[in-house]
Design a protein that fits this description.
By secondary structure, the protein is mostly helical. The chain has one domain (2-107, 117-170). It is globular, with a radius of gyration of 21 Å. The protein is built from seven helices and no strands.
Length: 177
């Protein structure tokens, strides 16, 4: 079942509770609903994690944890999914977000030479800021909704298959030899 596969790769609950950046949430982390893994918490965690992954900001995991607490969904899964945008994938994903935002706003695509400096970031916000943020919000909302729907669909499909297998097994056990 997909549930067991996902749970296998999630970090230990106690390690997450002790993480220094999550100390700001204090006793809110003791809500058992944040650590349960069921259909509702998984699909909500996918929605939160995928949305936050596309928000261009530092400390995405803290925002994902805050939203998981707010919506009472699985916190470890929400925090893990923000790593969709990691140092290897961030460039291509955010470039697609910028291109989508520029297309929607009717901005001409600017040739941007990215640099790793605060001054470049502040200077380029005027030219690429609005298209980039709009594209990020659209892609984030779309991926969030898609993740929610797909997890819900596959969870139901998996439960239905397990139920059918259980019925077949019971029928084969009760059949006379």
């Amino acid at each position: 079942m997909a549930k067991n596969l996902i749970k296998k790769y999630l970090p230990d609950t106690e390690k997450i509770k002790q993480h220094p950046s999550l100390k700001i949430f204090g006793t809110l982390l003791h809500d058992n609903n944040l650590w349960h893994f069921n259909r509702r918490s998984a699909r909500g965690a996918f929605a939160v994690g995928l949305f936050v992954a596309l928000i261009p900001m530092p400390f995405q995991m803290v925002l994902a944890a805050a939203l998981a607490i707010l919506f009472r969904v699985n916190l470890p899964l929400s925090a893990a999914l923000v790593w969709l945008t990691n140092p290897l994938t961030m460039g291509p994903i955010f470039f697609i977000c910028y291109q989508l935002g520029a297309l929607i706003l009717g901005h001409p695509g600017h040739h941007v030479e990215p640099q790793v400096s605060l001054s470049w970031l502040i200077d380029s916000l005027d030219t690429i800021g609005k298209p980039f943020l709009l594209g990020s919000l659209i892609v984030g909302c779309t991926l969030s909704a898609l993740g929610y729907a797909l997890v819900d669909y596959f969870w139901c499909l998996s439960a239905k298959k397990a139920w059918q297998n259980r019925i077949k097994k019971r029928q084969s056990e009760t059949e006379p030899d």
